[in-house]
Inverse folding.
């Protein structure tokens, strides 16, 4: 078998694997690589020497290739998988597990081979399953497509799901090719117009999709694992031209707060472990008190000078 590495330009990748499997890294400027395999006479491997270090990176985004005797890292484990053919598309529903808990990866493969995917925590997958019931009933109540009655944006019915710092938009839409359900995932910490992951399910396949999702949830439940309590919702504040986002998350090290500063074409963030929150609060409170005391003393001194000038 011959392994061929195809270089892809940075930023061209549509594979957002880190949504539930690892912390989102800053946009990389290094090139990415894709591996394709082809059989030839006799077992042989073609591997460029300068590409060897990138194998670990490749295995991290999907377990593409490992030398004989070396197993895929156990940081992420696939528990089950289902495949659906809906019209000209293929959909893969994979239940996976990592240190943060269980989740479902839904991948859409178009007729041209183009791949789109979204990641759902099991609790959100259960909510999505319930929405599929409602969308299916609504779709069944619709008459034949009529271009004169379609809204300008093509949306027939919409719902929104929220999980921590992410929003999941469900839109039943209609265009010249028919009716379909678009599922879009948007991180609330991204600036407006930032990247989003989305899939489109043909409306005729919503019931089949719901049934497959139900089978997986009945087998693996709807508990995400990890921290058992409800994490607080994110908060946002705006100061002049800057936006600040406060989001509570969880990884294998525990609960943390991410504070993001977002401007146009600029984003930076810090992460504060939960065990340090009280210390951070005390430091902020101390500075607030010192600034306030300094301002009070300054205003008090000015008032004394004014009184002295008046008495003279």
């Amino acid at each position: 078998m011959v392994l061929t590495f195809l270089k892809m330009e940075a930023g061209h990748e549509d594979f957002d694997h880190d949504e539930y499997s690892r912390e989102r890294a800053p946009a990389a400027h290094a090139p990415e690589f894709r591996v394709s395999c082809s059989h030839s006479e006799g077992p042989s491997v073609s591997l460029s020497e300068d590409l060897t270090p990138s194998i670990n990176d490749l295995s991290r985004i999907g377990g593409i290739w490992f030398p004989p005797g070396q197993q895929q890292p156990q940081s992420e484990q696939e528990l089950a998988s289902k495949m659906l053919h809906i019209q000209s598309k293929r959909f893969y529903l994979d239940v996976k597990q990592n240190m943060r808990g269980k989740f479902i990866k839904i991948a859409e493969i178009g007729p041209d081979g183009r791949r789109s995917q979204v990641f759902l925590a099991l609790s959100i997958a259960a909510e999505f399953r319930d929405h599929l019931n409602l969308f299916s009933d609504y779709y069944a109540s619709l008459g034949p497509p009529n271009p004169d009655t379609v809204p300008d944006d093509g949306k027939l019915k919409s719902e929104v799901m929220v999980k921590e710092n992410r929003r999941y938009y469900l839109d039943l839409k209609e265009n010249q090719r028919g009716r379909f359900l678009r599922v879009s995932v948007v991180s609330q910490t991204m600036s407006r117009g930032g990247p989003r992951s989305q899939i489109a399910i043909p409306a005729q396949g919503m019931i089949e999709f719901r049934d497959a999702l139900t089978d997986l949830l009945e087998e693996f439940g709807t508990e995400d694992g990890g921290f058992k309590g409800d994490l607080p919702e994110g908060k946002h504040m705006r100061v002049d031209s800057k936006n600040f986002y406060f989001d509570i998350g969880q990884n294998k090290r525990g609960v943390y707060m991410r504070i993001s500063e977002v401007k146009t074409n600029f984003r930076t963030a810090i992460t504060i472990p939960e065990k340090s929150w009280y210390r951070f609060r005390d430091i902020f409170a101390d500075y607030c008190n010192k600034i306030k005391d300094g301002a009070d003393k300054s205003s008090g001194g000015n008032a004394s000078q004014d009184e002295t000038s008046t008495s003279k």
